[in-house]
TrEMBL record:
<keyword id="KW-0812">Transmembrane</keyword>
<keyword id="KW-0597">Phosphoprotein</keyword>
<feature type="domain" description="MHD">
    <location>
        <begin position="166"/>
        <end position="419"/>
    </location>
</feature>
<dbReference type="Pfam" id="PF00928">
    <property type="entry name" value="Adap_comp_sub"/>
</dbReference>
<keyword id="KW-0653">Protein transport</keyword>
<dbReference type="GO" id="GO:0006886">
    <property type="term" value="P:intracellular protein transport"/>
</dbReference>
<dbReference type="GO" id="GO:0030665">
    <property type="term" value="C:clathrin-coated vesicle membrane"/>
</dbReference>
<dbReference type="Pfam" id="PF01217">
    <property type="entry name" value="Clat_adaptor_s"/>
</dbReference>
<dbReference type="GO" id="GO:0016192">
    <property type="term" value="P:vesicle-mediated transport"/>
</dbReference>
<keyword id="KW-0333">Golgi apparatus</keyword>
<dbReference type="InterPro" id="IPR001392">
    <property type="entry name" value="Clathrin_mu"/>
</dbReference>
<dbReference type="InterPro" id="IPR036168">
    <property type="entry name" value="AP2_Mu_C_sf"/>
</dbReference>
<keyword id="KW-0813">Transport</keyword>
<keyword id="KW-0968">Cytoplasmic vesicle</keyword>
<dbReference type="GO" id="GO:0005802">
    <property type="term" value="C:trans-Golgi network"/>
</dbReference>
<dbReference type="GO" id="GO:0030131">
    <property type="term" value="C:clathrin adaptor complex"/>
</dbReference>
<dbReference type="InterPro" id="IPR050431">
    <property type="entry name" value="Adaptor_comp_med_subunit"/>
</dbReference>
Length: 452
């Protein structure tokens, strides 16, 4: 059991659904005043209480999604459900905001009734919901026949009778890197948060088995470890057989049709900044400021970073900008108080310089250099950081058709900023490798990835 009611509101209540009747829905009138009071006191909390009623809330765009309960509910499940609401509504309305709720309140009520029943989550997959809750009047006749089998089937995330002329699976291994560097240039902490996403275009009801270079799996089987990774905080889609994974680390599942996130994980590992940034700031009698920024590529010379963008913050009262760069172009963005230095191609091992000169008013400015820090964005093709690999993908379907899986590795920016003195160093951006997987044997697959 999650909670008794859910309310969507902005400045006023837009829509609400009372699932059990244990909580008076008029209690929501206390939410906004309490939220504003907590904001003023600097004690903003994801759970707000009024008497014996608890409000658990999230904010999306200009909306607040609030769950109300008077019981000791599982908060983590409540928040998972609220974020799932956002995901489903976004799938239906493209943009979830006040106008989309007002324009589609009938569909919203239908979705709230299907997503949860008497406080218990039910069907939460948007693709399954779209089979019988539709916004198009012409499709409403389909709903008159019968409820789709996916609602009562053991495999509730996939429909029967799916057919494709060409059977393919696209696997995206997406990793976000968080690096924290102190003022001395030492890496204080670093980790990788990853996810494996699928785009499945397979006929019938296939079973897939995915093999990774998981160190625990290699230890269980007694094989030579080679290059392996240790995954922590692993979270799976509901289609994965958890008992199978716990027993022998095999990722076995019947996939949802179309796009889905198969799993997410975290890897604790030392990651060095791939582009190292150093800067020197000089102020002259509060009349002008000069900034020198040096960028060095700390990756292999064979690789090239594309579309590098270095964002350098400057004082809000700076004027009369002048720039000099050893490569690329620099421009001043006054509305964001930034200098944006762009480099289309940045080879590994190279160093580039950018100098900026600004005038300052005679009045002393108390702004601190480096607030906010310098940020860097870039993309490096054919590059991975953690070393995780999809070793094989086996597709088993009773009709015996042949299918072609594809793998793409992507490294992108994480949420943790990286500082050196006043400088933020790294934001990783889209690193792509496309690889075709031969599904005949595991040994061929291993060689194919080694070759690349």
């Amino acid at each position: 059991h999650l909670y008794d009611g859910v309310v969507i509101l902005s400045a006023q209540v837009l829509i609400c659904r009372n699932y059990k009747g244990d909580v008076d829905m008029a209690e929501i009138d206390h939410f906004m005043p309490l939220l504003m009071q907590h904001e003023e006191e600097g004690l903003l909390c994801p759970v707000i209480s009024h008497g014996n009623v608890h409000f658990m809330w999230i904010k999306h765009s200009n909306l607040y999604l609030v769950a109300m309960t008077n019981k000791n509910s599982n908060a983590s499940l409540v928040y998972s459900f609220l974020y799932k609401l956002v995901e489903v509504f976004t799938e239906y309305f493209k943009e979830l905001e006040e106008e989309s709720i007002q324009d589609n309140f009938v569909v919203v009520y239908e979705l709230l009734d299907e997503l949860m029943d008497f406080g218990f989550p039910q069907t939460t997959d948007s693709k399954i919901l779209q089979e019988y809750i539709t916004q198009e009047g012409a499709k409403l006749e389909v709903a008159k026949t019968k409820v789709p089998t996916t609602v009562t089937n053991a495999v509730s995330w996939r429909s029967e009778g799916i057919k494709y002329k060409k059977n393919e699976v696209f696997i995206d291994v997406i990793e976000s890197i968080n690096v924290l560097v102190n003022a001395n240039g030492s890496v204080m902490s670093s980790d990788i948060v990853g996810s494996i996403k699928l785009k499945t275009m397979l006929s019938g009801m296939p079973e897939l088995r995915l093999g990774l270079n998981d160190r625990v799996l290699f230890a269980l089987t007694g094989r030579d470890k080679g290059k392996t990774v240790v995954m922590e905080d692993v979270k799976f889609h509901q289609c994965v057989r958890l008992s199978r994974f716990e027993n022998d680390r095999t990722i076995s599942f019947i996939p949802p049709d179309g796009e889905s996130e198969l799993m997410s994980y975290r890897i604790n590992t030392h990651v060095k900044p791939l582009i190292w940034i150093e800067s020197i700031i000089e102020k002259f009698s509060h009349s002008r400021v000069e900034i020198m920024v040096k960028a060095k590529g700390q990756f292999k010379k064979q690789s090239v970073a594309n579309n590098v963008e270095v964002r350098v913050p400057v004082p809000s009262d700076a004027d009369s900008p002048k720039f000099k760069t050893s490569t690329g172009n620099a421009k001043y963005v006054p509305e964001k108080n930034l200098v944006v230095w762009t480099i289309k191609s940045f080879p590994g091992g190279k160093e580039f310089l950018m100098r900026a000169h600004f005038g300052l008013p005679s009045v002393e400015n108390d702004e601190l250099e480096g607030k906010p820090p310098i940020t860097v964005k870039f993309e490096i093709p054919y590059f991975t950081v953690s070393g995780i690999q999809v070793r094989y993908m086996k597709i088993i379907e009773k009709s015996g058709y042949q299918a072609l899986p594809w793998v793409r590795y992507i490294t992108q920016s994480g949420g943790t900023l990286v500082f050196i003195c006043f400088i933020l160093i790294i934001i990783y951006k889209l690193v792509i490798i496309w690889t075709a997987i031969d599904v005949k044997s595991e040994s061929q697959l291993t060689f194919f990835f080694f070759f690349f």
